[in-house]
Design a protein that fits this description.
Helix 3 packs antiparallel against helix 4. The termini are far apart. The chain is built from four helices and no strands. It is mainly α. 0% of the residues are buried. Helix content is 79%, strand content 0%.
Length: 151
């Protein structure tokens, strides 16, 4: 019980210290805009990202219901996951490139670099898909030719 109380007190203390640092470092106008920004992030997540993810998952699942697709579905899902994650990470850089007080902070062409990264991920996913598909086709052709169990 004492450990729980001391952990709670430490958590409250760290939270109050963070609040004090926030109030000390951020201007009042920014503190007023902060809840609006957070609400926008929640709305973008709930009304754009979640339906997009659910719809893509539904389409991939429907596709995987086809004959022999279940063996290659991991390549498609992994590729889509990496494309989505890298896009979410790159999105702030893509939206804010060259804007703000110091435009030299982001001197690179992030859009081109993002496109190259996404193309690399998609090509790697397509190669893995083809490798898995050909391995499955090779195994199936050996099994259908009567070469089962080392005969």
């Amino acid at each position: 019980m004492k450990l729980r109380a001391s952990l709670a007190a430490a958590g409250i203390g760290v939270g109050l210290w963070g609040l004090w640092l926030l109030l000390d470092a951020v201007q009042v106008q920014a503190l007023i805009r902060l809840p609006l920004w957070l609400a926008g992030a929640v709305l973008a997540d709930d009304f754009f990202l979640v339906p997009l993810t659910i719809g893509t998952g539904w389409l991939v699942t429907r596709w995987s219901a086809g004959p022999d697709h279940h063996r290659t579905i991991s390549a498609v899902r992994t590729t889509l996951l990496y494309v989505g994650l890298t896009t979410l990470i790159a999105l702030p850089l893509l939206l804010r490139q060259g804007k703000g007080v110091n435009p030299t902070v982001l001197p690179r062409n992030y859009f081109r670099d993002w496109l190259l990264l996404e193309a690399t991920i998609i090509v790697a996913g397509a190669v893995w898909f083809v490798v898995q598909r050909s391995r499955f086709t090779f195994k199936r052709s050996r099994a259908s030719s009567g070469d089962i169990g080392g005969r």
